[in-house]
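$ ./design --mode recover --in tokens.txt
reading tokens...
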């Protein structure tokens, strides 16, 4: 029983049941409880896309929540994905993030004729379980303007990697991303299609 006399809750971590006196936990405390290495990525199962729980993040769990972990080396971005997408390795830099995500930055990305500037850096956020999970949105630096001289629709500014990026709120249609089939090349085609709208 917890100090305030509320009954403990039970959660499943990697299919094993644990009782928690306090529903408020950190990613690190949950890993310690379940004997999971701190370098592994912890997920809270969630409808749609599972939520990554970083080691230093605080989370309030509910009775019956399911969590699972995976070693970082078992999934995510692989250098071969660049060649499969037709990209030279010297154009790409991968910035690993503490929560298991990775920021892929492509230099010298060409925009359609009339955009200013005509080449930018392109940033794609890859989720921890990529390519099973789809990327969402994309970012460019510096800010781009359409051939008509206006800022593209559904964009905003976001600070990432110590500089300001132009974020494009551009989302895949439901079912467009097929785990085990869709690739980085497919997502880059989607980005290209967004720019070709010229708005």
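writing sequence...
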């Amino acid at each position: 029983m917890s100090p305030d006399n509320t009954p403990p809750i039970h959660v499943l971590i990697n299919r094993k049941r644990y009782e928690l006196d306090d529903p408020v936990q950190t990613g690190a405390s949950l890993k310690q409880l379940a004997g999971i290495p701190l370098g592994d990525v912890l997920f809270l199962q969630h409808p749609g896309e599972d939520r990554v729980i970083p080691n230093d993040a605080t989370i309030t769990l509910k009775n019956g929540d399911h969590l699972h972990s995976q070693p970082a080396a078992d999934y995510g971005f692989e250098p071969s994905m660049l060649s499969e997408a037709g990209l030279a390795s010297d154009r790409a830099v991968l910035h690993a993030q503490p929560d298991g995500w990775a920021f892929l930055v492509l230099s010298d990305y060409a925009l359609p004729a009339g955009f200013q500037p005509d080449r930018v850096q392109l940033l794609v956020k890859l989720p921890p379980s990529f390519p099973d999970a789809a990327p969402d949105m994309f970012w460019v630096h510096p800010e781009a303007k359409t051939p008509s001289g206006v800022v593209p629709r559904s964009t905003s500014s976001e600070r990432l990697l110590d500089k300001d990026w132009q974020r494009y709120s551009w989302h895949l249609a439901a079912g467009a991303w097929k785990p085990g089939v869709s690739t980085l090349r497919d997502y880059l085609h989607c980005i290209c299609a967004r720019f070709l709208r010229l708005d």
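exit 0
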